[in-house]
Specification:
about 230 residues; 10 helices
């Protein structure tokens, strides 16, 4: 198949549904840690954009490798790329943990249909990134629940965005098998909202912010944590 033929998933850059879901999640995240979560989402967007816009896998791989190297480089203050400066300011040395996002996106470089192992690895990358955010926000005990929310987000994202029916069905099936505990921690309320929206999207087989029910779900989880 032609490279990029399935990239309806692209990145959140051109998708109002996912942009809205992330905006809602950020709105419910406590003010103190909101910038760090916002920079995580922006990094994820940039990585997806690198894949969506590359004309061949090698170019995408080179761009992902660039991000991986910059995230793990702890020497001095990052220059040239505003997002790297933001990550350094908001995440400090913990920004290296966001290399998991790079690893996850790299698994989507193959031809469609992707195997379950690649889709799982993509989801694991987002899961590890949100678990790292849980630790950064000061709630390490809830990190496994944040990881589950990140995996649901990834599966729901791919299940709706992929233009390959087999990938969509497989991603949804894998997502529905995730055990998603309620994230009752106020420090991770935004992550809990995103996880709940993703789970609802998987169950209903629709975008994250489809219909009035999505808004009601976000409000309920944002207020009550479940």
């Amino acid at each position: 198949m032609q490279w990029g033929a399935r990239w309806d998933i692209g990145s959140p850059v051109d998708d109002p549904d996912l942009d809205t879901a992330i905006a809602v999640a950020l709105a419910w995240q406590p003010r103190a840690s909101r910038p760090a979560l916002a920079s995580l989402f922006e990094l994820d967007r940039r990585l997806g954009d690198a894949l969506a816009r590359a004309k061949e896998p090698l170019l995408a791989q080179m761009r992902l490798a660039w991000w991986r190297d910059r995230l793990t480089d702890q020497g001095g203050s990052p220059t040239g790329e505003p997002l790297l400066r933001e990550l350094a300011d908001r995440w400090g040395e913990r920004r290296a943990m966001l290399g998991a996002l790079v690893d996850g996106w790299e698994n989507l470089l193959g031809d469609a249909p992707l195997p379950a192992s690649a889709i799982e690895a993509f989801a694991a990358g987002r899961g590890r990134a949100l678990a790292a955010f849980a630790e950064l926000a000061g709630d390490r005990a809830i990190a496994p629940s944040a990881e589950a929310a990140g995996r649901c987000w990834a599966f729901a994202d791919l299940a709706w965005r992929s233009s390959d029916d087999r990938e969509r069905e497989l991603a949804r099936s894998l997502g529905l098998a995730v055990h998603l505990p309620a994230l009752r921690s106020r420090e991770l309320r935004g992550v809990g909202v995103l996880g709940a929206l993703a789970w609802r999207a998987l169950v209903r087989n629709e975008p994250l912010m489809q219909g009035r029910g999505a808004a009601l779900t976000a409000m309920r989880v944002g207020m009550l944590g479940r």
